[in-house]
Amino acid sequence: MQCHFDLRALVVRLAFLATLTTLPGCALLAGAAMPVVRWRSAEMFASGDAERSRVDIPGNLAQLRFLADLAPDHAPVNVAVAQALGGYALGYLDPVLTPGFEPPQDALAQARKAFREGRAYAMRGLTSLPGFVAGVDGDLEVFRAAVASAGFPEVPALFWMAYNWGQLALLSFDDIELSAEFEKAEMMMRRVEELAPGYYHGGAQAFLMVRYASRPTLLGGDPAAAKAAWSRAREASGGRFLMTDVLYAQYGCVQTQDAAEFRRVLEAVIATPSDVLPEERLANLLAQRRARILLDRIADCFDLEAAEDTGAEATDAEAAPAPSPTPSPRVRKTPAPAVRNRMPGSPRPKARR
Known about the structure:
single chain, mainly alpha, Serine Threonine Protein Phosphatase 5, Tetratricopeptide repeat, 18 helices
């Protein structure tokens, strides 16, 4: 039997008690409510029912926001909101999931809104860093110095701000200014990697994996670096956090146009028990659903006809006898150009006939 706790009611009672003490009200409120916040968050992330969670999470988020807005200087509460927003947006609002979850027509706008809010809540935990707030929308070097001054206590806020910021940039190809801000999110993740490389199941390495795999090589993409980052992220989680593998297939395998590896990775994800990492069971369930959707849309990600033609020609070449001194002319079919660095679900260029 699942126990449902009204966090908002608890907060109202604590707010009244705070007025009867000499402690700052918000500090007392946030400190007293944190055990409940942690419990509710753990219950949410360990859920084994993805559909029920889709219904429940917005209500949980409303209660978490209520508390965070009462205590904007309490970093742990605000980071908890940022994590919940980022996970909900990736798991339920990402347009890639449209065939499986049938989100609202404005899913892209809702996902961007959630990632933007997640970035803002996590940023509340970093306002004490000298120059950080000014650097977010200002000079890159000022921002770089502020990020470099962050220590281990700032790791959760750094990670979840960068995570939400990076996801927002990935969904904003039409916003040149926002896409350019990805560099600042990357800077924050590299600091997380320096301070706590294993944080959130190797999340910093997974972020860098997507960074290297989501761009063409001319714009800084690097398939080898992406695969190396994937390996480090899997090592950090023991291969139990399945979303890392799904994102590698979605970005890394599409970048290299390796359809066989794409299938292998996603089929392995689907075959893995979702409770292999009990505290992240919901994330693993959502990763498996994402894997099924990507497999169903494999034709949007790869030029399968060209791959089959190439494979057939290779087989013919192995079976054919040695060519005669004067071979007869042969008309070779030109394969369609490979489609690289394209998000699943985006329009697929038609091959020339």
